[in-house]
Amino acid sequence: MGKLQDKIAIITGAASGMGKAEALKFAEEGATVVVADLNKEGAEEVVQQIEANGGKGLAIQVDVTKKSDLEEMVSKTIAEYKQIDIVINNAGIFDKYTASLDTTDEQWDLIFNINLKAIFQISNLVLPHMIERGKGNIVNIASIAGLVAQMGGAAYTASKHGVVGYTKHLAAVYSSKGVKINAIAPGTIRTPLTEEMLKTRPTNKIPLDRFGNDYEVAELAVFLASDDSQFMNGAVVPIDGGYTIV
Ligand SMILES: NC(=O)c1ccc[n+]([C@@H]2O[C@H](COP(=O)([O-])OP(=O)(O)OC[C@H]3O[C@@H](n4cnc5c(N)ncnc54)[C@H](O)[C@@H]3O)[C@@H](O)[C@H]2O)c1
Fold first, then answer.
1. Ligand 1 — pocket residues by CB below 6 A?
2. Ligand 1: residue whose CA is nearest its atom 1
3. How far is the CA of 176 from the centre of ligand 1 (A)?
4. pLDDT at 230 (0 to 100)
5. pLDDT (tens digit, 9 = 90+) per residue, 6-41?
6. Each residue's pLDDT tens digit, 151-207
7. Judging by beta carbons within 10 Å of its beta carbon (0-12, 13-18, 19+), is residue 245 exposed, middle or buried?
8. CB 32 within 8 A of CB 8
9. pLDDT score, position 163
């Protein structure tokens, strides 16, 4: 029996990178995965891969900056499966280290809408359902850019610090209702988002002297989404090869 047997999990940004690795791993652990992404074909391919491995999934095209898309994602999931056990708020974009003076209002708003506001809106859509059931599990994908400076630019760093703060808020207020809310703070992980950047980036500032892999983050997401982590509450767990300890 898998660690997420018969759970219904929504994962945003699940067509690529860490979200895709999480979708495949969650399905392997017995969850039915709603693969929600702006990239429709990519989401469908992930579901095909899940099904080829003997798992269950549903692809939904979602732009997380559109509230109507988020409402539809949640209502479709409940209509199809009657419940939502897990939400992994993973969709996010990077600002390529753009410093404050070089960041436009539009760039700031886009990063905040995808990286932070969508998490607030999705949480407000699923929390009433989870509170009513007295159980549920939310894992927000922050970043070590939510813990320290210089792992992103102005908007990315501020938005990911926001994810950390918002996760703590949710956990403080709603954990007593049975909802478990934690965050993951990945260091530099090999994904399509970082592929180009990593060609020239040294690893010597990371004590483990390497970048991380998407499947390593997926393992941590399974732990936080499962009943193995019952006493985790509002935690922000770095997975960064030790980058933030030195
Ligand atoms: N890769 C890293 O080193 C790293 C480190 C720390 C945190 N993160 C965070 O992890 C998360 C995943 O990153 P990744 O590296 O796997 O990225 P990725 O670019 O490989 O995947 C991101 C996915 O999000 C989707 N997406 C983008 N905008 C969207 C929107 N408006 N609506 C719906 N989906 C949208 C994309 O289509 C894509 O499938 C992000 O939140 C990122 O900030 C990444």
1. 12-13, 15-19, 37-39, 42, 62-65, 90-93, 114, 141, 143, 186, 188-189, 191-194
2. 189
3. 30
4. 97
5. 999 999 999 999 999 999 999 999 999 999 999 999
6. 999 999 999 999 999 999 999 999 999 999 999 999 999 999 999 999 999 999 999
7. exposed
8. yes
9. 99
What torsion do the CA atoms of 141, 144, 149, 150 make, to the nearest 10 degrees? Answer: -100
Q: Which of 115, 163, 191 to mutate to test the pocket of ligand 1 (most atoms within 8 A of CB)?
A: 191
Give me the amino acid identity at 210.
R
Ligand 1 centroid – CA 1 distance (Å)? 30
Q: Considering only CA atoms, which of 117, 118, 94, 120 is closest in space to residue 107?
A: 94
Catalytic, out of 81, 156, 166, 174: 156
Q: Are 87 and 224 in contact (CB under 8 A)?
A: no
SS3 state at 49 = helix
What residue owns the CA closest to ligand 1's atom 24? 13
Domains and CATH numbers, the chain: 8-245 (3.40.50.720)
Q: Residue 55 carries which side chain, given as an amino acid letter?
A: G
**Distance between start and end Cα atoms, the chain:** 39
Q: Does the annotation mark 243 as catalytic? A: no
DSSP state of 117: I
